[in-house]
Every structure is written in C-alpha cells, then in structure tokens.
Protein 1
Amino acid sequence: MPAVRHVAMLSVHSSPLARLGSKEAGGMNVYVRELSRELGHQGVSVDIFTRRSDPSTPTIVPLAPGVRVVHGQMGPAAPYDKNLLVHYGPAFVEDILRFAESQGVQYDIIHSHYWVSGEVAVVLRQSWRCPVVQMFHTLGAMKNRVARSAEETETSRRIAVERMLLREADAVVAATPLDREHMVHSYGADAGRIHTIPGGVEVRRFRPVPRSVARERLGLPLGQQLVLGVGRMEPLKGLDMLIRALAMLHARHPSWRGSLRGILIGGHAETTSRDQWNTEQQRLDALRQEHGLASAVSFLGTQPHELMPDYYAAADVVAVPSLYESFGLVALEAMACGAPVVASQVGGLSLLIEHERSGLLVPPNDPAMLAEQIAVLLTQDAVREAISAGAHQRAQSYRWSRVAHEIQSLYCALG
Ligand code: UDP
C-alpha cells in the first residue's frame, strides 16, 4: 500500500478554528481539527482548506506540527448562508489550486467534510487526480425526518448533492453502521464503497477529574445537583426535553427545588442581550419561564473546548436528549470523563451507549422517561458509579490515535 504524505482536508463552510457551540460549529469542527492533529502526529502533513469568514484572518494559520489551516476566498469575508456558497465555488477552487501550486504540494488524498465541501472536492479531483474521501457528518434526509417546521427542513439541493457525492466519491466514511444504512436506504448508495469508521475522543484531555476539583475550577457550587446539556441551540438537540424533565423532577421532589439545576452550554450566555439569541434559545427561555425554572436552568453560552472536560466532570448527569445524532461527540467526551450520560436512543447514541452499562438510553421526545432516568442517576450511587466506570472504559476504544490509524489505512488502500 502506498504511503500517504499530503492530505487536503476540506472543511469549506466552517473552520476548525471556529468558536464551538455557535450556529455552524460543533462536532464536525472538532472532528476535522482532532483528526488532522493526530495525522500530523503520525507523520502525515495536512492542509485544512476553509473559507475566510473574517478579513483579518491570514491565509495560513498553523494548527499543530504538520498541520495548517489555509483560508481561501469564498463569498464575503463574513459569516454567510452555506446554501448560497455554491455561487462562489469556482473562485474558491481557483484559490486552492493556486495555493497548492505556489507551495509545490501534491496532495495524495482529498478528505472532504459535509456536502458543501464535497462539491469543491469533486472539482479539485479533476486537477489533482487523487482520490476523494467524503464524510457527511449529518445527512439532509435524516435531518428532514425529524424536522418540525419548514424552517428546519434542508433544501432539495443539499439532498441532490449528497446523492451525487455518494455516487462520485472514491470512498465514503460513515460514523456508524446505522449511518451507512441510511445512506443505502435513503439515497440508494452502493454499500460497498461506504466504510464505517467512528469519531474519536482525545482521551488524554477528556479523562476523569474529581467533581469537587472540576467545580472549584469552574466556579460552580458544590452543594447542588447539576444536570448538564451541551449543544448548538437547534431544535434537533432536544434541549426542551431536558427543561421539561427538570420541571417534572421539581414537581415530584419539592425538596430538590433549591438544589437541582440544569446548565446549558451552547448559544449565548444569560448575560448577553436577548436580541442575539436565536429562535431556539428564545423558545427554551420561554419554556423555562413557563415552568418557573428561570433560575434553575441557566444558559452558560458557548464554552472553550478546553474547558469541556471540567464541565463534564463537574456534572452529576450529562443529558443528551437529541432527536437525531449521527455520531454524538458530546456523549463520547462525557463518557471519557467518566460522567454518567442519559441519551436518546437515536442514531449514533444508541450504538455508543450500552444501556445500563456505559450510560442510560431513553426514547426520544419523552421527557417523563428522561426525568425518571436522571432521577436514577441522582439517587442510586451504585448505579451511577458502575455506569461511570463502564462509560470511561468504553470511551477508550474511540481514542484518536486508533481512529486516525483506521482513516490512514483507508487513505492507503485508495492511494
Ligand atoms: N462544544 C464546545 N463548546 C461549546 C459547545 C460544544 O467545545 O460551547 C463541542 C463539544 O465539546 C463537542 C462538539 O462541540 O466536541 C459538539 O459535537 P456533537 O457531535 O455532540 O454535536 P454537533 O454540533 O456536531 O451536532
């Protein structure tokens, strides 16, 4: 198998350097950054191409040994609707081709993330004549299955591009067998070209820390029971289920009213002006007011990724009540920190967590069951401890060094 030395990683619409937990930045950004870092560590040089969304960003930003982020022009140098970026695709491709030529780099593989990058990848392939590995992270058809309004529905163009990429890419990586199945059933993809390789977690950073130490570092109170929810403020994350579940627990256990709190990471912090909050955050705000939980559920806003291990370790329970999750990085990170997780039995979460061994699974859209399982973890020490140990152990098999080796083997097989 030929060795792969240079990888062009495409993360066109959203940068691996973006602030996480905001509208367009989450698991995919972490994936691109961490995979690239690990590949760099394993001796592969990686250029991550992304669009410039701020005029002051330099063209090249070093990320890690052997890894750099390269900014190209694609539309205005400002945040921009990803559905409209297609108009600027040809100029972006020109920019990348010029860059590669000026640097004298010949890429062995194009690894493309999300459908927006895929469109660029298949054009670049014509010039570079190297294989394209495509990952979707989420699929439009799956999002549409759980969409509750026209606003949440993905465009037919996205679905068409995804279908084209499933046909055209040299290989497709699915994060789970379930994801692979969706590609086959919803898009008619050829199963033989889809490789299942999970996401990873940096186990050296995401590891257990005593709860009191984590809380002290974060300035969180010691005497309260904290249920943590993490995610972009999007209906798909189901954070409304967590608020409803907490309302049920307060109603059922009046003595918990002063001590049981929900903390939500993502979106905007409590102290910011409400005009900045998106529709979902405003909806969650209205819901907590309606249930008299204004002071029991707090918005902490987006938090630096470096602080996430402490947040997971500080929580009594981490809730992941998503309606759909293709992989579920938040759950995996929390597990690596030994935090007890209650998650919806959907998508990647249902494969990541073994119910009652490495976490608890509940049906999606069911706040009563979510409340019940949160209560189990809050009141039954033996169950919590066993799950915490099981979760930590399970997360080890997803460590980045291992996942990146699998990705490299795929590169080599295609090269
Ligand atoms: N994240 C973060 N800070 C935040 C919110 C999220 O660092 O304020 C990170 C989180 O640790 C995880 C990722 O963003 O690595 C979210 O990944 P997930 O797959 O759970 O959700 P996605 O956003 O991809 O739907």
Protein 2
Amino acid sequence: MRFGICTLDEFNLKGKTVLCRVDFNQPIDWENDALKSTARIEAAVPTVKEISDAGARLVLMAHQGSDIEYENFYCTRPHAKVLSELIGKEVKWVEDVCGPTAREAIKELKDGEILLLDNVRYCSEEQTLFEMKLNLTHEQQAKTQVVQKLAPLGDLYVCDAFAASHRDQPTLCGFEQLLPSAMGRLFEKEYVVISELMESPAQPCVFVLGGSKISDAFIMMETVLGKGVADKVLTGGLVGNILLHAMSKDIGKGSVDFIYAKNYEDYIPKAKELYEKYSDKIVLPLDLGYVEGGERKECTLDSVPAEIGAIDVGSETIKLYQQLIKDAKTVFVNGPMGVFEEAPSEAGTKAVFEALADTDAYTVVGGGDSVTAAKKYKVTDKLGYVCTGGGALIRFLTGEELPVVKALRHAGKVFGPEKK
Ligand code: ADP
Ligand code: MG
C-alpha cells in the first residue's frame, strides 16, 4: 500500500478478471477514424502489459471526449488499434459499454486476453456526472447501471487514469465500493512523484506558468505561492499578458481586446491582487513578441506599438527565464510562453523547453499543450517527469483530496490487499 491505496504488487492477477479504468482521451482525426496523438495510450502500456502478462483477463474502460463540445466525442475503436500496435498483441474491441454484447465479450475472455469497451461516456450516468452537473456520492455511483452490470463480472478494479482522477464519475469512483481495488502503475508513478515534489521540492523551486487556461493558472499560482512551495513564478502567454495589463502596463490594443473577447476580464482584479501580494516572487515578461506581416517583431514594455497583439515573450524575457531555470533545483512548467504552434511566435516556448533540457534541476511538465511542446522541441526524454493530467494535477496542488484517491482509499480500507 502507498498513501493508503493498494498497488498491483498486492494482488495475484492470474486468472482474474480485472476491470481497469484508463485515460486514453486524445484529439480525434474524424476523417481517418484515428487519433491525433497517442501519448496517453503509450503512458498506460506498462500497466496493460503487466496485468495481461500476469495472465489476467483484462477489461479496459475509457472515455473519449464529451458532449460539451462534440469535437472529440467518439468511439474507442482507434484506441484499441493503437494499443494493439504498441504492445504487439491483439486488443479486442466491442461496440458496447455494459450491455449484453459487452458482458458476453467479457465472459468469453481467456487468461491474458485484453478487451477495450466502448466510450464510457456513452452511458448517461457517466456523462451527466461530467463537470458535476449531478452530484452522486460514491455509494450512489455504485448503484449506477455501468457499475451494477460490470462489477459482478470482475474480481479486481484497477484505476490507472490519474489524468481523470479529479472527476467524480461511476467508472472512476463507483467500483471501489464493490470490488478490491488498486491503482495502476501510471497512477502510482504520477501520484508519488507529485506528492513528493509538493512536500519538499529542492530549492530554488521555479514555476513557469503560461498558456491560455487562465483559471487553472491563477489557482495554481495562488496555491504554490500561498504554501511557500514556489520561490519564483515566471509568467508568459495569456497569463503574463493579463498580469501585465492588471498592473497597468501597456501590452497593445490587440492583446487587451483579446482578453475581453475571451471574457477573461474577471481575472484582472485577481491578477492585480496576486501580483501585489507576491511581487517579489511573480516575474512578469520584460518584453513581448508579436507578428506583423507574417514576421516576428519584438518590443520592450515602454515602447509597445499601439495596435499589436502580443503572442509571445521577447528576447530579454527569454534570457532572464533561461538563467532562472538554469539556477533552479526544481522547475515546474504548465502552459506555453506563446502561440508556439506558429513559427514566428514560438521563440519563448522553445527557449523555455530547451532550458529545461539543459538545467540540472528536476523538471516537471504538465498540461496537454505543454506536453505537445516538449515533444515538438524533442526534449521529452530529458525531462524529469511529464504529467499526463493537467486538471488533476492542479486540483492536487490545491490540497483537495481527489475523488478517485478517496475512492481507492475506501477500497483499501474495506477490502484491503490480497497479499499482505
Ligand atoms: P496546457 O495545455 O499546457 O495546460 P493551455 O491549454 O493553458 O496549456 O494553453 C495552451 C494554448 O495557449 C496554446 O494553444 C497557445 O497557442 C495558447 N497561447 C499561448 N500564449 C498565448 C497568448 N499570448 N495569447 C493567446 N494564446 C496563447
Ligand atoms: Mg491545453
């Protein structure tokens, strides 16, 4: 047991039917019935292999997208194909989640075989609970259809979906009421690394916060500064622009209009309050990058051309951030410094990730786009730890007990480990 949660070491897996919740959620390429990235599936491979190689009958449950946007709300067929290629072994797929077809396919599994069920968010209860439109206790979640139909077929529940561990939904929190449960290897790794990092990070500890998910960035900033975990917070991206604007710095009309167009003006007072409280720790960009006529241009904060929209940090900022990352002992990055997807506005993000590859500090990168940036600049294997989950990580940092952690601890207490 670690942190009151059972691990795979504590169960005999041979011949057992293991119901394992993974996070395979990826951007979808509809035209080709394929995935645009396979990072999350790759991350789950060690758990999948270990359970299957041990001779268990492995049933995988996963979600893909949601009805909030429909952009990525899709079946899990491409995921089965990708997983099968990655592990070099057949992964069966069934177009059903917990109906008769799915249950029949589970019963037919032989030792070592793997079956991926269809998108669990096709089940109404999983979907309604998304974003907590409905609040069900974990006891109530155990009474939902998906748990009631599948739990009797399983001997053990495993959750390897750390990236979804902030969600309070039946396939994540319901099975733990009825079955002995363990965390998978990816969950274990992510949870342990983050717990240790937050308890006593080697100092100086530098957070680099950028990107466009403003609420997450400000929650994180407030938490790590409030707890005294961060010695410095380097800001960039839209986060940096909002802080600069809140402190009455000129960032150009285009940048300000963008903040209002995105309805982020509510964060301006918060940004001001945070900066005034922690002005010795929050580092603002010294200069900005923007694009004019398809070309990159830069300006210092005292000479910002009237109409520009800043979409990157400038060279002076880059130099400063590179030095601070070099001198740090722990560096945590969430959110890019600019619109790194386009060449003229990638310099800030590229420089930060190159500095991460060079520093002796322990480096952690979290968030979907940040992980993409690490790949783009080919530094992934030089990083200390790449976290698949942004949302879960942020909620964890705030000190909240994650719903899945709570559910797994419950199972640890009630059913305990099999091997003592
Ligand atoms: P992550 O996924 O790593 O948590 P976010 O989702 O918060 O990061 O932000 C990533 C997005 O922010 C990228 O698509 C990037 O283009 C965009 N971005 C970065 N800087 C700016 C900026 N100054 N203005 C607008 N968008 C930005
Ligand atoms: Mg993102």
Protein 3
Amino acid sequence: METINDIRVRFAPSPTGLLHLGGVRTALFNYLFAKKYNGTFILRIEDTDRTRFDENSVENLISSLCRLGLDYDEGPYKEGDSKPYFQSERLDMYHKHAKQLIDNGQAYYCFCTKDELDDMRKKQEIAKETTKYDGRCKNLSDTEIQAKLEAKIPFVVRMKIPSDTVFDFEDLVRGNVQIASDLVEDQVILKADGFPTYHLAAVIDDHYMRISHVLRGEEWLYSTPKHLFLYQAFGWSPPIWVHLPLLLNTDRSKLSKRHGDFSVSTYLDAGYPKEAVINFVALLGWHSADDRELFSLGELIQEFSLERITKSAAIFDITKLEWMSGWYIRSLPLQEVAHKCRVYFEKEGIDIHDEVKYLKVISRARDQINKLPDITLHAKMFYTETPLNQECSEIVQQDISQKVLTWFVKALQEGEEPMDKEAIQILVSKCSAELGIKGKALYFPLRIALFGDCHGPDIPLLIDLYGKQESLSRLHKHIL
Ligand code: GLU
C-alpha cells in the first residue's frame, strides 16, 4: 500500500442545523483518507457565526457521526493536543493574529456602517460592476483610526488583498487554479461582535492543528485565494487542498434544504441502515478502481483514493439509497437485522419471544423491504390468526379439505423432529399420493388453516416457520 505520512485532516462543520448528507460526505471522505493512512481525523466545531448558531446542532453533529461509526480521533469532549476544538473558545488567538496583520499592513480597520455598505452595493449593481467592498477605509490615516477607535465607533477588520496579482494554487481535484486578485474582496476577518469570520479562524486553526489536507465542498474553492492570502501573510505553508464536487439533484439543480430534509438523523431514524447511508454517500463524487458499487466501511478505507474523486458534480439520487438499503437489509448477518428490527415489533405489541420463529420470520420478511420499520408489514401475519373470508371458510369446510387437514395433523404428530422444509415437502407429497388429492384441493385447505388465505407462502415454509406445535394448533382449529 502506498504510504503518506502524518496525515491530519478535519471535518469542520458550522453548527447551524442538523448534519445533512452533504456534510456526511465531507466527514466520510476525510475519515476514509485518515484511516487509510493511519492519520488523524479531527472534528472542529466552527461556531463563530453567532447569529446562525443552533444549540442542538452540536449534539446532532456528534451523535450522527457516532451513529454512523465515523469516530473522530480528536475533537470536542476528547483529548488532543490541539484543543480546544470549539472555535468560540479560541478567540484570543484570532484577535492576536488579526492584530498582527493590522500591524504588518496586511489588514485594516473598516468603520463603514451597514447603510454605507448597502448603498455601495446598490451603486455597483446599477453600474453593473462586481459587487465587493470598495476599500474606502483602506487608506485612513493613523490619527483618523485612533480617533474612531477612541470614539468607540464599531468596526470590522478586513484583509488587504493586493491589486493586480493572481492567486495561483493547486487543488488535487481541480488541478492548477488561478484567480485574479481583482475578483477577490477585502474579506472581513474580524467582525463587529469580536468574533472572527470563518476565513481567519479556519486558516489559523488549520495551521495550528497541523492539518495536512483540507477536504471540503467545492463551494469553498473561491474562498481559497483569501486563505492563500492569509497563509502568505502569516508566512505559513498552506495545506493540500482537495475540493469535493458539488452535489446536484437528479434534475441537476443545486441540492438545497428546499428539496427536502436531508439530515442524516432523519434517514437513520426512518430505518435506513447506517451501512447503506455510508455506502451511498461514499459514491457521491468518488468511484472505485473497478466501478464496484457495494462497499462496507472497512472496504472503503482500503479502496479510498483521492485520485478517484471526480471533478464533475455528483448526482444525489435518493432512489439509489433505497436500493442500497434493501441490499444491506438482505446481506447483513441475520442476527444483526433481527436485533435492529426488534424495536418495531415491540412498538406494535407483537410477541416475538420464540427466537427460532422470529429469526425465520425475519429471514423471509427482510427480502421484501427497503427500510427496517417496514418489516412488521411483512411479518405480522405470522403472529396473528387472520379471520377467514367467505370463500376461504367455505373451502376449508368441504369434505375433501377436511380429509387433507385430518391426514396432515396425524402425519405431523407422528413425524420425527426436527422437521426441515424438505421433510415437510415429502409429507405434502405423501399426503397427495395417499389421498389422491392434488393442486388447489391439497394446498388451499392447508394454507387457509395455517395462514388464513388461499394464497401466500409455500406450505413447507409456513410449517417450518411456525414450528410443529403452532402448526398443529393452527390446523386443529379448522377441523370440524
Ligand atoms: N465551517 C465550514 C462549513 O461549514 C467549513 C469549511 C471548510 O471545511 O473549510 O462548511
């Protein structure tokens, strides 16, 4: 295996809502890359936007990662030499660095009011110019600045982007990227509330947390020049950038909350196995060497490679998750699926204490579902006695039916245990031969008595599933 040393990557969500599948994709790719090379996967909470901060979000982010089995090595509530992992607890560091940039002439105070900024934007829009801060505070004199600071006029700090230069950087997915500095705004780095913006905080943290590779969504590609500017201003070497392709809906529109609730906890709560969610998300912008589709987490770690992250947007087709989910339900160890399903039976008050029968029921019913809670729909008929409809009750009362039932009860009682499906099939054939009855006349009464309907599962399957005692009791009830 190819080795890369000292991999340190981070998933750095802003706690503004529930963790959605797009966020899981970023977390997963970072996780896979770290695990593949024995690196470190860090969770950092970027909580510097106090207006959008959502208290429940942090808990949801951490519990969702945990439910998916994407355990982080360093992060909130864990030890690690880069703590704290909440940006709101690192403010001193950001202030110190912002001050350093101001002192070096690479950042400046801006005292513009919201009205001034709105007005500036409107004029630029009318003049069909790029809307960006026009730098009017860039050249304030020291005395002017001092006077405004003393007068306690609210301010922000902006980076001083040089004009007439080109930001030139490599991205592992996009290749060489060049962006003219004229297109890059003098971005705010410290806000009026004393909190840094994402740009300043992320760069400082990535540096001090010794992040080797930054894997994040493509929407951040155009922020990268600002980050490069900061790295250069501080005299630090930047990490390797890896921008993950955009996620689009099947109609190629941009994936957004408006298209539905894509929070991962919603999917897990709805009964999609975590294995299916991980597998589905792994293929959003990455493919294996042989285009195989189904992978466990362990296999993904083996197979993952940054070189196979795609440039083109990934299509978010939720029907594929349905399909994968069904596949996992059928492929996971039976005991595990049975265990996961227990809760749904309990919810419906279905008595599943007979473990042998329960496993057989699950083994059959799991073939018919794509998500776990649907299991009871395909299983509860094996735990109830369905009242017969008119047609069935007439059939079962016929003499010929009674003959079949009587013969079968006797044979079953005398039959040796354990009786597998094959042995039961032999019994069915023997019944047919001895009584000279076949086809519907043979199967219908047995199925009606055992299952409550003419149509349904095969007789051997039913008897095997109920076991001898329950089968006898069901058959007995219909003997007149
Ligand atoms: N806090 C940013 C986000 O929520 C992180 C971007 C990055 O990874 O640099 O997407």
